[in-house]
Write a structure and sequence with these properties.
The chain is α+β, with helices and mostly antiparallel strands. The protein contains two helices and three strands; from the N terminus they run αβββα. The protein has a three-stranded antiparallel beta sheet, with helices on one face.
Length: about 110
């Protein structure tokens, strides 16, 4: 009879431990998937950067603060660096990105 009580006690302890671990993992999962909101001073700007595969990517970037912390980025265009019309394509893509940045800023950062 004592052995049965001991086994039931150990089984109950294992079940309680598993439930506790499941709750902690769920709390961690919820904490890590919670989206952070950018501060009110964050603004969208148009930028371009070279990629490793000889392309130029034009995008809008949401930045805030004096350090320019990046909160979001959205690609607008990718241009091949060897394209004969590269300058025109870059100019047009940057103009499009500036317009998108203006629109996103007017929407309040959405």
């Amino acid at each position: 009879m004592g052995r049965i009580l001991l086994e039931v006690g150990v089984l109950a302890a294992v079940v309680v431990g598993l439930l506790s671990m499941a709750r902690r993992l769920d709390a961690l999962r919820r904490g890590y998937t919670r989206e952070l909101s950018p501060p009110a001073d964050a603004t969208w700007t148009a930028v371009h950067r070279g990629t490793a595969d000889e392309h130029t990517e034009v995008m809008v970037v949401l930045r805030s603060g004096p350090d320019g912390q990046v909160w979001d980025r959205r690609s607008c265009a990718i241009i091949t660096n060897t394209d004969p019309a590269y300058d025109k394509l870059l100019y047009n893509a940057m103009e499009d990105a500036r317009q998108r940045a203006t629109l996103l800023n007017s929407l309040g950062g959405d």
